[in-house]
Write a structure and sequence with these properties.
about 550 residues, alpha/beta, Glutamyl-tRNA Synthetase, domain 3, Ribosomal Protein L25, Chain P, 3 domains, seven-stranded mixed sheet, 13 helices, 25 strands, about 25% helix, about 25% strand, binds adenosine-5'-triphosphate, binds magnesium ion
């Protein structure tokens, strides 16, 4: 792990089961796995599973966690996704060491296990059409009925499976099914599919196979081959557990892992299913998988989320069997806490207006000292250039301001952060009446923002020296959807709820010169929020910053 948190991981019901299994001697070491299908990019929901599985491997002696690509569907899977998934897992701070696997590594073994089932009369090749298979399956209230092909001989079944494997049949012509019970109350047990024909080459195995194993068969057998002790998955697989156990009871596998289910992470104001993420990306509703508004790990990384914040969030939400929707603000609070603790401060003006100090010498420059981190004196001070012409935030001046407006208006004195007290004398307006310059006088006896006579000012505003300023574009993000549960509307498509104002671009921002340094980490722009350079679009001479998150939860107020 490349950057460790000091907080111990809270226990949960899964860790309690593991503790008991180690105590009783059922296992002497724990092996978990994270088994993504490489059919898209990882999202924050996957992070919950990654933190759970890899977290266990870090906290228990001799424990390991395998990264296994569940690559059984070559039509939808790509090596681009495999690379991205590895990068995301590493970025989160986890390491699979030598335990990188693919379900396709086991295709020979899986096939041999399927033949074993046929020989035990526990599997058969069905030749019903897909439509008939559905009809024969029955439903929740009616039992299914046996396929007329259910009685095929072992020899016929083996020969047919062999032919399917070699590509002698068209897709959908035959299907290998487990022979369990067509009247089982649990529909997953009504002779589920084991192998389907797919005349498609595979990135790892080329054209060797014309059949690919189904998830329910491949997954439990792969777990068993790898000696996984605890196979942790989300609640929708609870109804599949009897099948998981059936396969492993029928087959002579080296181990029988225990499947334990926990609830998925759901977040409000976003969507997380890969199908929907694909739609958003492919339909150009967002700019790629790493769009900073998406809940993908690559999008969040680009936005400026830190691995620490995500791990902290996963630890706070815990692991239970209760289904719920977590508020985005919980995630953002973990983020704020980490950024507040770890990001240096800087001054940046996002909506600039000139401030001219009329009594400051024309050609004078000076260097003032800015505190890098108010809570970390060891991070010291930085140089901030100061001169006669500054930029301040347009909203820090108001004409005819009320008494409680502790910023600039004619006759009012404020502190320029780290600099001087200034008093507004007048403003210059253009023909349309818009303010273009705020004119002030300064008190040279208040250098560093402290007055010698002890006089107090209520407001402190940020600024940037005009001739030293660095230009930048700043992108401010808002929720991607306008309603909390966009995917749960029965009448409307979730895409109807896309927030049209989810990105707000400011082109003319003025940053403190120290931000010219190549910035890989986040900054707090004082009074504004947390920002970092965009890792795709920001270039020397054309800096682009993303607003990671505001200083406070402004969304709570809006609601
Ligand atoms: P999706 O439903 O978004 O397409 P998936 O479950 O099909 O996701 P996989 O690649 O199969 O995606 O997931 C890998 C692992 O991540 C699985 O063990 C799965 O249970 C877990 N996982 C996926 N989504 C979540 C989530 N929202 N919360 C917790 N775990 C999740
Ligand atoms: Mg899936």
């Amino acid at each position: 792990m490349n950057d460790t948190t000091t907080e111990p991981t809270p226990s949960n019901f899964i860790r309690n089961i593991i503790d008991a299994d180690l105590e009783s001697g059922k296992h002497n070491k724990v092996i978990t796995r994270f088994p993504p299908e490489p059919n898209g990019y990882l999202h924050i929901g996957h992070a919950k599973s990654i933190c759970l599985n890899f977290g266990i491997s870090q906290d228990y002696p001799d424990a390991t966690c395998h990264l296994r690509f569940d690559d059984t569907n070559p039509g939808k899977e790509k090596s681009e996704y495999i690379d991205a998934i590895k990068e995301d897992v590493r970025w989160l701070g986890f390491d699979w060491a030598d335990n990188l696997h693919h379900t396709s590594d086991y295709f020979d073994q899986l096939y041999a296990y399927a033949v074993e089932l046929i020989k035990k009369d526990k599997a058969y090749v069905d030749s019903l059409s897909a439509g008939d298979i559905r009809l024969y399956r029955g439903n929740l209230t009616e039992p299914g009925k046996d396929s007329p092909f259910r009685g095929r001989s072992v020899e016929d079944n083996i020969a047919l499976l062999e032919g399917m494997k070699k590509g002698e049949f068209a897709e959908g012509e035959h299907l290998l099914r487990a022979k369990i019970d067509m009247s089982a109350p649990n529909i997953n047990m009504r002779d589920p599919a084991i192998y389907r024909i797919k005349n498609m080459s595979h990135p790892m195995t080329g054209d060797t196979w014309h059949i690919y194993p189904m998830y329910d068969f491949a997954h439990c057998v792969s777990d068993a081959i790898e000696g996984i002790t605890h196979s942790l998955c989300t609640l929708e697989f609870e109804d599949h557990r009897p099948l998981y156990d059936w396969f492993l009871d029928e087959l002579e596998t080296p181990a029988h892992p225990q499947q334990i289910e926990f609830s998925r992470l759901n977040l409000d104001y976003t969507v997380m299913s890969k199908r929907k993420l694909h739609e958003l990306v492919e339909g150009d509703f967002v700019n790629g998988w790493n769009d900073p508004r998406l809940p993908t790990l690559s999008g969040m990384r680009r936005r400026g989320y830190t691995p620490n914040a995500i791990r902290d969030f996963c630890s706070r939400i815990g692991v239970t069997k209760k289904d719920n929707i977590i508020e985005m603000s919980v995630l953002e609070n973990s983020l704020r806490e980490d950024l507040g603790e770890n990001s240096p401060r800087a001054l940046a003006v996002l909506d600039p207006i000139k401030l001219i100090i009329t009594n400051y010498p024309e050609d004078q420059d000076e260097i003032l000292a800015g505190v890098n981190h108010p809570k970390k004196p060891e991070e010291g001070m930085r140089d901030i250039p100061f001169s006669k012409e500054l930029y301040i935030e347009r909203s820090d001046y108001m004409e005819d301001a009320p008494k409680k407006f502790f910023r600039l208006t004619e006759g009012r004195e404020v502190r320029l952060r780290f600099a001087y007290y200034v008093t507004c004398t007048h403003v210059i307006k253009d023909a349309s009446g818009e303010v273009t310059e705020v004119h002030c006088t300064y008190d040279s006896q208040t250098r560093g923002g402290k007055s010698e006579d002890g006089r107090k000012v209520k407001g402190t505003i940020h600024w940037v020296s005009a001739k030293h300023a660095v230009n930048a574009e700043v992108r401010q993000y808002d929720r991607l959807f306008t309603i909390a549960a966009p995917a749960s509307s029965k009448e409307q498509d979730y895409k109807d709820f896309i927030n049209k104002d989810s990105i707000h671009v400011l082109k003319n921002c003025k940053l403190e010169a120290s931000l010219l340094e190549p910035a890989t980490a986040a900054y707090q722009f004082e009074r504004q929020g947390y920002f970092c350079q965009d890792n795709v679009d920001s270039k020397a001479g054309a800096l682009v910053f993303n607003r990671i998150v505001t200083l406070r939860d402004s969304w709570a107020k809006k609601k």
